Amino acid sequence: MLVLMNLTQMREFDFESRAKAIYTAYDSKIFRADQDIMNALFCVFQEKVLDIECRRNFHRGYCYTENEDCFVDNRTKNICFCDQALGSGVQILNGIGGKFMSDLQKSLFISDAYKAFRDLDIFKDSYSSIFHTLQNQFNQIDPNPCFLMTAEA
């Protein structure tokens, strides 16, 4: 699950005190910390959640799923995309924790994108230069499916 938060709206919603109340009420039943608290909170306030769906997302997890939109056969090079992202482009790059900083094969393009944005000088570099850097890095990825990126894994 990817969570993007508008912090102004979260403050107006009084998220902190609501989360503390849930923690107090369910303390002995909480095992996944923030995930359990947010699930309990947004179960009640469902209108505060916007499902951004697969079409806006890029995530390795789609290589393991075969739901209505995301198929393991949608590979460009060694990276899986959902149907709509192949047509309209990736709008959110999703990595988990240290994956952004990892040079491991299983992190593939995510760590390259992280480093390109980390090293970007917004006063000197153009967005087209970062695009070309990422495009070159993407084109250097091994085009053969690797063990970690197949449905059989």
Brief overview:
The chain is mainly alpha-helical. It contains 6 helices and 4 strands. The model is unreliable at about 60-70 and about 145-153 (pLDDT under 50).
How many domains?
2
Strand content: 5-15%
User: Which blocks of ≥5 consecutive residues have pLDDT under 50?
Assistant: 62-72, 145-153
The N- to C-terminal Cα distance equals 21 Å
Number of strands: 4
The global form is elongated
Please state how the strands of the largest beta sheet are arranged side by side: 1-4
Largest sheet: 2 strands, parallel
Supply the number of helical segments. 6
Secondary-structure-derived class: mainly alpha
| Fraction of residues in helix | 25-40%
- Average pLDDT number: 71
What is this structure's SSE topology?
Elements: H1 7-12, H2 15-26, H3 34-44, E1 57-58, E2 75-76, E3 79-80, H4 83-88, E4 92-93, H5 109-118, H6 127-139
Parallel strand pairs: 1-4
Antiparallel strand pairs: 2-3
Helix pairs in contact: 2-3, 5-6
Explained architecture:
The protein has two domains: 7-48, no CATH class; 54-149, no CATH class. The model is unreliable at 62-72 and 145-153 (pLDDT under 50). The chain has helices spanning 7-12, 15-26, 34-44, 83-88, 109-118, 127-139, and strands at residues 57-58, 75-76, 79-80, 92-93. It has six helices and four strands. A two-stranded parallel sheet has the order 1-4. Strands 2-3 form a two-stranded antiparallel ribbon. The protein is elongated, with a radius of gyration of 19 Å. It is mainly alpha-helical and 153 residues long. Helix content is 38%, strand content 5%.
